[in-house]
Amino acid sequence: MSGAGSPDFYYREAQRLGYLARSAFKLLQMQNKYKLIKPGASVLDLGCAPGAWLQVACQSLGPLKNGGTVVGIDLKKVKVPSVHCDSRVQTVCADVMKFPKDQARALSPKGKGFSVILSDMCPLVSGVTTKDAALSIELGMRALDLAIGTPDLPPPDDAICEEKQSDGCSAGEDENGILQPGGNLVIKLLESEDVHEFSQVCKARFKKSALLRPKATRSSSREIYLILQGLR
């Protein structure tokens, strides 16, 4: 009963509790273990369809009076779930791979960035293990770039700086990430030899890092989550 598509325990629990998908329990388990989302946090959910993580993220903000915000982005148009969500949740239909950082930052409270970024993005699985793993890493790299930027790149030359400044932008603006200092980042990956190398690249920028396969993950799935806490 644990194969893909089978109505297992988590599927039934999701229906019983009003979650749009069993994947809600993956984030719930991460939240219970790591306390990633604090009351009043600002959360960006990359690849938010069908909306189950939006539900869990909003619940984790606490009562409406605590404030906070949850923004979901997905290629598909996602309606804000009516259960477990409130006015603090909004969705944007866009391609994360092409979505400009300045527009993503503008979605955060006062344009100051997000305190938590969640990436549940996954490629369309082809069945070719190496290809799927490579595409997964590519999505993970995009989530990382949105979160922390590309600080290791050399600064732009004077000509580019002048061009950016003439457009009213500060030099290097696009290289800055939108995750606030001390913020948390979660990235879904498909298990492969490259996951360890990717996690090593990430962990230097965060105080804590861990790889987790939530109990709610199907036995047939190769999904694993890289959990990064406390952006330096």
From TrEMBL:
Active site per the UniProt annotation: K188
HAMAP family: RNA_methyltr_E
UniProt name for this protein: rRNA methyltransferase 2, mitochondrial
Record key words, sorted: Methyltransferase, rRNA processing, S-adenosyl-L-methionine, Transferase
UniProt cross-references to Gene3D superfamilies, sorted A to Z: Vaccinia Virus protein VP39
Record flagged with keyword Methyltransferase: yes
Gene Ontology molecular function, alphabetical: rRNA (uridine-2'-O-)-methyltransferase activity
Pfam family, one: FtsJ
Residue ranges occupied by any Ribosomal RNA methyltransferase FtsJ domain in the UniProt entry: 19-230
Protein family according to the UniProt entry: Belongs to the class I-like SAM-binding methyltransferase superfamily. RNA methyltransferase RlmE family.
Species this protein is from: Aquilegia coerulea (Rocky mountain columbine)
